[in-house]
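Discussion board: Methods & Data

I've been asked by a reviewer to show the raw model output for two of the constructs in my manuscript, not just the figures. I'm not sure how much to include, so I'm pasting the format here to get opinions. Each protein appears as its amino acid sequence followed by a line of discrete structure tokens. Is this the kind of thing reviewers expect to see in a supplement, or should I convert it first? Here is construct A:
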Amino acid sequence: VNVVRDFTYTMENLFLIGRNGMHKYNNQDHSILTAMIVVENIRNGITIKDNIWSSNAEQDYHEEK
């Protein structure tokens, strides 16, 4: 995942969102949240993607196996 993330950081206008785009587990709410963050980033001219990848980092929201 880090290789994919680092590669896409070189492209300002490419934003990965959701489970398939980020290659990490997100529930539906977090997948939608990543899309909303990207929309706000684009509207505000933000090209740094750290806030997208830091969504769903809270362990409290992860489901137990």
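Construct B, same format:
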Amino acid sequence: MCIEQRAAGTYNGAQMTGEGYQAIVNGLLARKGLVYTCLQVKNQIGVLKNTHSFWRYMQAHTGLGRKPDGSIDADSEFWKTNTEWSPPANEDLLDQLFRGYTVDGSTSFVPGDDYGENLEQEEEEEFQATPTSSTT
């Protein structure tokens, strides 16, 4: 239902309109007979987004190999040590919903950092004294 709302333009992967939340609430009631509030739906979307963000981070930063299907090649001990659950079963749907809107660390930067590009150009700055008053 969230993917339907994204296609409808009420959700952009980062924020959903009130109309989008209400459509999901109505859809859950109609399709599943479940009664949720808009806040509960919002919180669940947050959980899904965090799950997707964690999985994307793991894909980019574990240093582990990959299986032929693209999943992380790790034994069950790794998952027990690093997580309380296994990789998400609905990874393709989470990608459709959140791709481009979650932080995985692969494109992060620190504002003002030149990442070592100007190491040779660094010069010692001249000390400039603070102006003082000439009156006593």
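Answer (T.O., handling editor elsewhere):
This is acceptable in a supplement if you add a one-line summary per construct. For B, something like: The chain has one domain: 2-98.
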